[in-house]
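Q: My labmate handed me this sequence with no annotations at all. I'd like to see what the chain might look like in three dimensions before we decide whether it's worth expressing. Could you predict it?
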Amino acid sequence: MTLLQVDGLSKAYGTRRALAQILTATPNRVVRAVSDVSLTVAKGEVLGLIGESGCGKSTLGRAILRLHEPTAGRVTFDGTDVTALSAPELKAMRRRMQIIFQDPYASLNPRRTVAEIVGLPLVLHGIAKGEEARQITARVLERVGLRANQLDRYPHQFSGGQRQRIGIARALVSNPEFIVCDEPVSALDVSIQAQIIALLLELKQELGLTYLFISHDISVIGYLADRVAVMYLGEIVETGPVTRILENPRHPYTQSLLSAVPEVGPRRARARVRLQGDLPSPLNPPPGCKFHTRCPLAISACRTLSPQQRDVGPGHVAACHRLEENLTLMEATP
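A: Here is what I predict for the chain of 334 residues:
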């Protein structure tokens, strides 16, 4: 059953013009952070969203929740068009759709206690208040691995991993069904990352949660996700089951990401794909395939025609002009 469906979602920012003028602004004054993205997330599924820093992953996650208003497109959650909701209707919907932010330091108000931070959604949504809210907050805090006697402490009295647990508790307290996990472990030490990932998996199983898990670490995605969507310069270039993406990536950009993962053990190290140049500016994206400026396999069509998503296996699609040739960049690169 599809819980979340995103159709043609775009998000643009005007650098010198008002938001209402974005669609008519000149190209060099518009940052097109997300461009015509379509995807689905099934109930109980973890969809991993991966790509380089600056490719638009976090913007997409926030646009889905309407923390950033989409410029175009539609988001449907459990049959409801989220992009068409009024402010009161959106407030009610946010009980069911939550987010865990990346930075456990900046995402918590330093002037509020843990009880106030975690319990605020209960008050805002009219779920509970006073002592009842405090009791619910204490139970949720204990479920994420903290103690009830820490309710009256402030964020600066906790470690980074503990702060992220507070952020998880805040997302859980309204009993949501869908959570955007916006790189929730990237700011943490490796050992703490493992604890938080294990906690998120436990909560998913126990509460029947659905995640959009955003990360730049494909190893984390490979461990957590059921399916993977690969993003480059605001566009989804490949989507498929996690095992197919890891074992048989078809888009050259996905192949380059996988080649950067260190190999541990006696297996032969895979060929390292070294892309030339930096990620193009979203202020002035290249025509045709946006990856062609860095792709060693690019042909003339890549420079002028934008590739369409095509099936390359069960549930596996990719956008590349050279899919029929089944080229493997990792084998072609010394």
